[in-house]
C-alpha cells in the first residue's frame, strides 16, 4: 500500500536511485486526455539536478518514456506507465554508506525495518523517487487542464530570509525567472547568496515553500477523513525533508479571535458567493469554497553536508562520516515542482471523487 | 471512501449531530484484545461537552455501546461497531441555519457539493463526529497497550498565551489536572482567564496542541507515500478546525543549518542506537527511529461566536446572523483527546502494516 | 478489509447472530436518492426466517432502522448506517456448539484463525450476516432505480429437480408467487415436495439460483482485474454455502466450438448495436454490452441437519453431534433476495466507477 | 482501481499488446525473499506463445526484466517492477480491427466505454496482459516457497473430452509431460487430436482447467466478503475467456443431500484435525481448513477463428470479418500457468492478511 497514493487517480511509484530506473504507473486516469512525453518532460526538467549553481551538480537527463495508456496522443483509460532510466548510476564505491548510518538519513530506519537495503545512492529512500511524482503530476495537470485550474508554488523562505509580503502581492508568473524560484527579486538575490555561502561551507539550508491553487471549483474534498487539507497534508508531508504544513493563516490563526478570523460571505456583483477575507485558505469543512487554496510547507535543511559528522556503523561502533561526492545545499528550488506535482495529484483525485457527489 | 481511515485498522464513522446517533465500525482489529465499554467511555468522557465552565454547555451523556466484535470481553477479529445515541437532539428551530450560510462553517460547501444537507446542528459536519473518532482511538489504544506506547497531548498555546518550555520539561502526567489540559500551571491559569474573557465577549480563541508518542518501536511508517508524518498529518488535518501540523522542529527547522539540525547517532551504554538530539521528531525517512515522536497542530478559533455576523442566505441575499444558543469559546481542551485518538489510530494501523515488512 | 465490499459504493457489515444486532454502513452513496426504511424493509422481508413451511422456523422481525445519511427522505452523501436489532437471541445453551466443531460449519476454521470465537448461533459466520447485505442491496437498488435496471433471481434447481427451460422462457414477474421462488409452476411444486421430504428426514438440499440483470448500460465493469463477472463472482461467492458461479453458457461453453459460440453483432432496426445470440451472458472483455447479464450459482445443501453426525470436540476427541433446535432444509428460497442484493451492490459500484471512464 | 489486485500483496499491471511493452508493479512483497529473473522467466516460458503446434504461432521471447525492489538477489520490501518488452509488434495493418467490431471480442465494449481505443492487436484487452500476471505470480510463489505450498493446474477437459478420474487419482508431476498439459495420457492424446482438428478447420475449442493448492495452512481467507473462494473466484474470473468457477464438488453439490455432503471431522493418528471427505474443496466458512483447495474453471472457445464471420463496423454497417493472421485454436494449455499464477497471487495476499488475525 505504501507506494500508492490516491483513491481514484492512483499513482504507484517504483525504483531506486541507482538501479535500472524509476517510474510510476497511473491507474484511473480517464480516457480522452491529450498527453505527450513533452508535457511530462517539461515538468521533469524543472526538477532535474544540475540546473544551476545552487543545486546539486549530479547530472541526470531524466528522459521520460510513456510505456502504456496513451494512443495517438490521447489517454485510453488504461494504466499509464512512465519510465525514467537511470544514467548516472556509475559503479561507485558504496562501502561507507553500506555500513554506516548517515545522520538524519533513512539508512538506519530502513535497515531496521526491512533487514535488507539497497544502499546505492540511498536506494529507494533517495529523493530521486520524487522524479516519478513530478512525472505523475504532469499527467494530473493535463487531466485538469480544461478546468482552468492553476497551481503555483514558490520559495517563500530560505534559512531566515523570507519574502516579506503575502502571495497576493507577488507576480506568480515570474517564479521561474530566477534560479531560486522566488518571485520577489530582492529576496531571491539574498536567498541565492545565502545558499552559495552554505554551499561553500559544505553546509545546507532549509526553508518554506508556499503553494497556491487557483480556480478550484466549489465542492472538492471529501468531508470527514479525506478533507482537502488532509489529503494535501498527506501528499506534501510524504515528500522527503518536509516537516510541516499550514493552510491559510495556519499557525497564525491562533492570534486572531473568531470574530476576526471568520470569513464573511457576500454576493459579488456577478452574483457569485464570495468571502471578504480568506483566512481559511480556500476550504470550509475540508471542502473547497471557490477561493484560492494556499498553504506553506517547511523543509528541513538537506541531511547530506560536506562536513565530517559523528555517527555509528551497522555494528554500533562510533565512527566519523567524511564528506564525499556532491551535495545539494538547498533543495527548495528543485522542490517547487514537487510540491506542485503533489498538489495536482490531490486535485485530480478530488475531481474524480467529486463525480460521486450526487446521483 | 471519505468516511474511512486506515489501511488495515480501518475505521468508518457515521452519524449526524442531531440524528439518531453517531458511531463507527472498526474493521481489522485483531482478535485477542481485552476491551470493555468502560475503556471507551473513559476516553469519551474526556471529550464530552459540558465538562467545565470553559467549554460548551451542551449536555450529552455520550454513552457508548459495543454492538459487535467483542465476546466475553475479548475482541474476536470481527468488526467492532460502536454506537453513541444522541440525546440532546431536541426539536430546535433550525430555520436560520437551514437557510443561511454561517461564516467559516461548512454550510455553503456541503450544500454546493451535495445539493441536500442535514442542517440540524451542523449535521455530519458537526464536531460531534469526532466522538466516534475518540471511541475508535480507545480501541486502538487497547490494541497497542501491551507494547508500552504512550500518547500524550496537551494544550501548548491559547491565543497568544504559550507554554514557555518544551515538552521535555513538562510533567505530562499532570495534563488533566486543570480544565484547560495544559501541564504548565501558570500558563494554564492565564489560558483559562483568556478563554473566560472570550466567552464573556461572545468570542472564541484558537491555539496549539502538542502531542507526543513515546516508545514507538523502530520501523513503523511506510516509506514513500505513507510516511508516519504523512499519515499523522492526514489524520490530524482531518479534525475540524485544524489548520496546520509540524513535526519535530517543524517550521523552526529552517532556522538551523544542516550541520546543526542533523541528529547524530551514537550507541548508548545499553547498546541501543540513539540520537543525541531529536530535531526530526522521531522519524527518519518517514519511519519511526525509536525516539519520541512529537508534533504540534494549530486550531483556528471556533467559528460559532455569540456576536452578530454579516453573511448571506441560500438565495445569496445579504443578512445578519444573530447569535443564538450555546458556543464553545475554545475547543482546545476537548480537542486534546481527539488528537490523541487520531494518533492512536495511525499507530495501530502502522503496527499492523509493519507486520508485512519481512518474510 | 475483510468486512467491506465495493470500490466506491462501499458496504461494511458488522454484527453477530446472537449479539446486540447486525447492520451495515454504506459509504459512497451519492446524495439525492429517495430512500425510506420501507424500501429496505420490503427487501428484508423476503429474506427473513419463518416465511413459510419450507424454511427455518426461527422468528426474527428483522426491523431495520436508518441511523444516518438520510434526511427528509433523501440521501445526503453521508454514510448510511442501517441497524437491525436481534430479537431471537434467547440465552440458549451453547455449550455444545462452543466445544464441538459442527461438520461443514466454520467453527473449526474460525477458532483456529482467531483463537477466540463468538459461538452463539454461529456468531459472525452465521448466515444472519446476509440480512445486512440485503439491506445494503436495497439502497443500491434505490440508487440505480432511475436507470430502469431490473435484477431478478429465481430458484433454478433444488437437488436434482431443475427448471427445464431457459430463463428467457419464464415469466420472471411470477417468482414470488410460490414459496420456493421458482417461476415454473410444475417444477416449483416438485421442489416444494422435495424440500418437505428432506425436512421430514432431518436432511437438507442444495441447488442452483439463476440471476438476470436487464437494461444494464453498455460500458460497466472495469477491464483487467475488476471485470464485471469477476466482481459478481467475488460478491456471490462470498455468500455462505455458495460453491460455484457460471456466466452465460458457463460450463456449457466448452461444448460449443468458437464458430458456434461467438455472438454475432448486428444493427437493430432501431439502430442499436445488438448481438444475435447471448452465449457470453451480457459482457465482452468483462464489460457490459447492453444485453442481459445472467449467471447461475450453486449452493451446497445446508450444513445443519437434524441427524446425528460424527465429529470431534475442541480437544480433538471424537464425539457425536446430536440434532437440536431448528433447521433450514433448503436455503435457496431465502437466498434469492441475497443473490439479487449482491448483484445490486456490484452494479451500483460499477455505475460509480464508470463515471471515471472519460474526461 | 481496475488494474490492481490484492489487498496487501498488490499487483498493478500495465501495457498493451503492441505498445512498448507490458509489465507490473508489485507493492507489498515483504523484504527477504530470494528472487531472480530466472524464477520469473521459467514461469513466463510456460505461458509464452509458440510453444507447440497446438497453440498460437506468434513469437514473443517474453524476456522479463526486474527493474526495482530486488537487491543482491533478495527483495527489499520496495515495489518490484517487472517489464517485458514487446518484440513482435510489427507495424501491421490494423485498419480492419480499428473499424470493425470482432465478434465476442472486447472491441465494441471498450470503444463504447472509453471512446478511444488502442486497437493494435487488441490493445490492453489482449490476453497478452496475462503475461504480467504470470510474472507476478512467480513472485508470489517465491514469497510462499518456504511454507511448502504447492499449486498445480491441469487441463481437465477440452471440448467434450474430459479426464475421467478425479485429480486425486492423477500424477500431478506429469502435467508438463505433454503439450496439452493434461496428466492423463490417453485423454491428452485425444485432446491434442481435437485441437489439431479444430485448428485445421480454422475453429477453436474451450474447456476446463482444474487447479489444486496443497498444504495451505488452516486459517487463510477473510470471513464475510473476502472468503478464500470469493478471492479466488474474483482472480480467476478476471482471466480472459473464463466463464465459470466451481469449488470442491461445485455444481455437483446440489446432487448430494446434506447428510452425504457434510465433511465429517476426525482426529488423525498424528493428532491432526482432518476431514473424512473433502466435498467442500478445502475451505469452511471461506477459510482454509488445511485440506486440498481445489476448483475447476471453464474457458469459452477462443473468439478469434479463421472463418468468415458476420459483424458490423463502427458505423453500424453490416460487414464480413475475414480471417487473417494467426490464431490460437485452444488457449487452455497456455492458460494453465495463468490459473496457477492467479492462485499464487491470492494465496500470497491471504498469507499477509492472516498476519492480522491476532494480537
Structural features:
22% strand, Chorismate synthase, AroC fold, 5-stranded antiparallel sheet, 18 strands
List the helices and strands and how they pair.
The structure is a homotetramer of 359-residue chains.
Chain A: E1 4-5, E2 10-15, E3 21-27, H1 37-47, E4 64-66, E5 70-71, E6 74-75, E7 80-85, H2 95-99, H3 107-114, H4 130-144, E8 150-158, E9 161-162, H5 185-201, E10 207-214, H6 228-237, E11 242-247, H7 258-261, E12 265-267, E13 273-275, E14 283-284, E15 287-288, E16 293-299, E17 309-312, E18 318-321, H8 332-354
Antiparallel strand pairs in A: 1-2, 2-3, 3-7, 4-7, 5-6, 8-9, 8-10, 10-16, 11-16, 12-13, 14-15, 17-18
Please provide a written account of the structure:
The structure is a homotetramer of 359-residue chains. Chain A is of the alpha+beta class. Chain A has a single domain (4-354), classed as Chorismate synthase AroC (Chorismate synthase, AroC fold, 4-Layer Sandwich), CATH 3.60.150.10. Chain A has 8 helices and 18 strands. Chain A has helices spanning 37-47, 95-99, 107-114, 130-144, 185-201, 228-237, 258-261, 332-354, and strands at 4-5, 10-15, 21-27, 64-66, 70-71, 74-75, 80-85, 150-158, 161-162, 207-214, 242-247, 265-267, 273-275, 283-284, 287-288, 293-299, 309-312, 318-321. Chain A has a 5-stranded antiparallel β-sheet, with helices on one face. A 5-stranded antiparallel β-sheet of chain A has the order 9-8-10-16-11. In chain A, a hairpin with a 5-residue loop joins β12 (265-267) and β13. In chain A, α1 crosses α4 (130-144), α1 packs across α8 and α6 runs antiparallel to α8. Chains in contact: A-B, A-C, A-D, B-C, B-D, C-D. The interface between A and D is large, with 46 and 45 residues. β11 of chain C pairs antiparallel with β11 (242-247) of chain D.
Amino acid at each position: 500500500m505504501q507506494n500508492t497514493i490516491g483513491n481514484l487517480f492512483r499513482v504507484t511509484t517504483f525504483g531506486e536511485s541507482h538501479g535500472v530506473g524509476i517510474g510510476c504507473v497511473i491507474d484511473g486516469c480517464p480516457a480522452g486526455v491529450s498527453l505527450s512525453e513533452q508535457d511530462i518532460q517539461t515538468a521533469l526538467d524543472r526538477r532535474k539536478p544540475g540546473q544551476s549553481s545552487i543545486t546539486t551538480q549530479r547530472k541526470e537527463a531524466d528522459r521520460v518514456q510513456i510505456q502504456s495508456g496513451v494512443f495517438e496522443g490521447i489517454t485510453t483509460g488504461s494504466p499509464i506507465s512512465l519510465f525514467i532510466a537511470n544514467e548516472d548510476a556509475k559503479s561507485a564505491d558504496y562501502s561507507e554508506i553500506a555500513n554506516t548510518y548517515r545522520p538524519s538519513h533513512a539508512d538506519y530506519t530502513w535497515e531496521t525495518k526491512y533487514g535488507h537495503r539497497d544502499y546505492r545512492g540511498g536506494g529507494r529512500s533517495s529523493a530521486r523517487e520524487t522524479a516519478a511524482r513530478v512525472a505523475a503530476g504532469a499527467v494530473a495537470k493535463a487531466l485538469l487542464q480544461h478546468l482552468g485550474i492553476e497551481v503555483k508554488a514558490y520559495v517563500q523562505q530560505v534559512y531566515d530570509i523570507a519574502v516579506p509580503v503575502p502571495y497576493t502581492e507577488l507576480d506568480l508568473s515570474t517564479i521561474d525567472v530566477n534560479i531560486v524560484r522566488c518571485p520577489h527579486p530582492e529576496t531571491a538575490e539574498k536567498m541565492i547568496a545565502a545558499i552559495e555561502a552554505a554551499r561553500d561551507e559544505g553546509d545546507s539550508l532549509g526553508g518554506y515553500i508556499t503553494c497556491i491553487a487557483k480556480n478550484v471549483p466549489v465542492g472538492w474534498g471529501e468531508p470527514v477523513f479525506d478533507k482537502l487539507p488532509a489529503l494535501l497534508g498527506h501528499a506534501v508531508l510524504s515528500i522527503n525533508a518536509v516537516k510541516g504544513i499550514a493552510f491559510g493563516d495556519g499557525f497564525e490563526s491562533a492570534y486572531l479571535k473568531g470574530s476576526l478570523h471568520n470569513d464573511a460571505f457576500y454576493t459579488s456583483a456577478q452574483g457569485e458567493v464570495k468571502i471578504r477575507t480568506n483566512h481559511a485558505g480556500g476550504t470550509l469543512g475540508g471542502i473547497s469554497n471557490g477561493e484560492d487554496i494556499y498553504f506553506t510547507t517547511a523543509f528541513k535543511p538537506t541531511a547530506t553536508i560536506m562536513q565530517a559528522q559523528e555517527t555509528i556503523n551497522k555494528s554500533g561502533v562510533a565512527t566519523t562520516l567524511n564528506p564525499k561526492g556532491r551535495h545539494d545545499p538547498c533543495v527548495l528550488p528543485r522542490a517547487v515542482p514537487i510540491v506542485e506535482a503533489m498538489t495536482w495529484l490531490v486535485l485530480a483525485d478530488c475531481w474524480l471523487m467529486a463525480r460521486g457527489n450526487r446521483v
